Amino acid sequence: MKKRMKSILMGLLAVLVVIQFIQIDKTNPDYNAANDFMNIERPPAEVADVLKNACYDCHSYETKYPWYTYVQPVGWWVKNHIKEGSKHLNYSKWGEYTAKRKDHKLEEMVEMVEEGEMPLKSYTWGHPEARLTKEQRDALINWFKDVRNRLGYAGGDEGESHRESGEEEHEEHEHD
Length: 176
Hints:
This protein is mainly alpha-helical. 57% of the residues lie in helices and 0% in strands. It has 9 helices and no strands. Helix 3 (45-54) packs across helix 7 and helix 5 (99-114) packs antiparallel against helix 7. Residues 156-176 have low confidence and may be disordered.
């Protein structure tokens, strides 16, 4: 029995060593900086700092990969989170979004921050600078609401304001 357990452990160790050679691609795609959220919406410095520290790693093409992404399978898990996060909201592509989609994204940003769903707990565990204080949460929420108002979104029927087509609505909720 001991010999069998030792063989299993040695096999698992061998697999763990081998998978270290299967690294994730840490290359950030090129993008047009003129389309970036920061360049278009021009947040105040304190909001911009929070967005960069708490949001941009997963929701832009400006990901800074930490050391632990070199350890597999952790790197694969992180890469998947980044892929899903940027698929749902990508600040680097903000200028490519339609007005209605921007409205929907701003509405979701308010909701996610209000409910404490973003940033993810699994992210803040390894990135203490992304842990938001109540003041930071309030600043983000208020600024997102101000942007919606400035862009003329927040006044109408919220249930209809962000719906451009059934296809876009399906795409938006497919990854929730």
